[in-house]
Amino acid sequence: MSDQDKKFKRLFLFTGLGLVGIFILIQLIPVSRENPAVTQEFQWNSAETEALAREACFDCHSNETVWPWYSYVAPVSWRIAGHVNDGRRRLNFSEWDQPNEDADEIIKAITSGEMPLRDYLLMHPEARLTEEGTQALVDGLEQTLANDPPVERQGRPPRRD
Ligand code: HEC
Question: Is residue 128 part of a domain?
Answer without folding.
Answer: yes
